[in-house]
Amino acid sequence: MSDSTYTIKQIADMAGVTTRTIRYYDQIDLLKPVEIRANGYRTYDQSSLLKLQQIMFFRELDLPLEDIRSIINRPDFDMVDALNKHRLSLQTQQNRLQRLLRTLDQTIDSLTGTGRMGEKDYFEGFDHSEYEEEARARWGNTSQYVESQQKWASYSPQQQEDIKAQGNQLISRMVGADAGAAPEDADIQQAVGEYFDYLNRYFYTLDLKIFRNLADMWVADPRFAANYDRIRPGGAAFVREAVHYYCNHHT
Amino acid sequence: MSDSTYTIKQIADMAGVTTRTIRYYDQIDLLKPVEIRANGYRTYDQSSLLKLQQIMFFRELDLPLEDIRSIINRPDFDMVDALNKHRLSLQTQQNRLQRLLRTLDQTIDSLTGTGRMGEKDYFEGFDHSEYEEEARARWGNTSQYVESQQKWASYSPQQQEDIKAQGNQLISRMVGADAGAAPEDADIQQAVGEYFDYLNRYFYTLDLKIFRNLADMWVADPRFAANYDRIRPGGAAFVREAVHYYCNHHT
DNA sequence: CTTACACCTTTACGTTACGTTAATGTCAAG
DNA sequence: CTTGACATTAACGTAACGTAAAGGTGTAAG
After folding, report:
1. From 3.30.430.20, 3.40.190.10, 1.10.1660.10, 3.30.40.230, which CATH number describes the B5-74 domain?
2. Looking at residue B238, what is its pLDDT?
């Protein structure tokens, strides 16, 4: 019953991997067979199985095989330190996922109209014509878009031009023509406030919370970020900071 | 100032990627230049930039470029649906990371001796000799291991054999020789209780909370899982369930 | 003995999203 | 004219296998 040896398929099945994996581990000197018989067959044993499952354990933790080999082969390896380092990288990953999920949620929310902030403002604060075709193509199947289109259409062409120009001026002021300005500067904050009023006047009613979300999305969505960044590199991030500051100080 | 066209380096810099990326996107028909001049230079324009940043937006969300192409090219694409699906996958990833972090923490805890549960029990509940060389190689630099080694060495060889045999018997009973048994069955629970006492008697003192953690680790670490699973497929998971049930009902 | 079938072997290309040379051409400035 | 910054294509490398392709081996059944 003991001194049992296994074929490649047997340990592969026991460990829940394919034979390809086992051969690959052989190839990269991660797990060598205990013997190669005359016919070329690889032979493994109990200790191979343990080692293999040890490998699987670390692989499950997303450690690259290279690192695993170090762990397996070097007796003086500082296990705790390695695991702690790996823990850190896992946490970084997690934080990133957290961020992505938030951005994603905001995007979805804005698309489905939750928080009664349509993609109206989202799409029409800038030059309308430039985005129209694309916007229709991509968001045309949401009812909010149709609705906002109608509202916008209710303005006369002259009005539309005026509104757009006004918006663009405010945006320029927000981004801050002089590169030395800080998001907290009085004139920047003044412009942010006016832009907030502007959106409220000509578009949807929105409160500070939604305003803040909007700003986050301007940065998150590159089509808008590009508009800000074209005015000044880092413009989008700057605007977000300015809006955040504004919202924090106007509760 | 308008009708501006960009070179490959310019848009690459504006989008924060390398020119290689831009060429690659050209190659896979994700983002084609608006024109290729006589000298072979690629030419891009404003809309290219927007499209590129749109791509970056989705890439940031970890969508494969293949999917991004679908999104970009197909006007009738159901955005919300796609994003929701992607959200799900991100959440799955997050849950997995959560699990990994917990396992990792437990492993680290056990190694550093937090919760005063040394890797003693962890390594010596089974056949000691089989693991010794490996265990020393991998955990030899932790003070707890040395300590537990000394304790174990204080037993006479006969005692050691008896203790091991006793443990193995209990393990066999826990895993449940008959496949029909459930983790909650009285005789299984009886064996779990005896094993708990056994560990307390011959090894470290441990409470139910630590006992539960130990069980989790038996499953998480394949070297132990293998021991249970060798007795019966799914044995490790079975033991964990049994121990969890035991701990839940013995507060 | 043959046949079937499951298993074993090596070789080698495909995958993803680029990074990294290598070898060469182009353009504007000094 | 040279220099330096830019452009081009071609091609190999990455991580961890999946997936044939082409062929050898072992065993059980007919």
Report:
1. 1.10.1660.10
2. 84
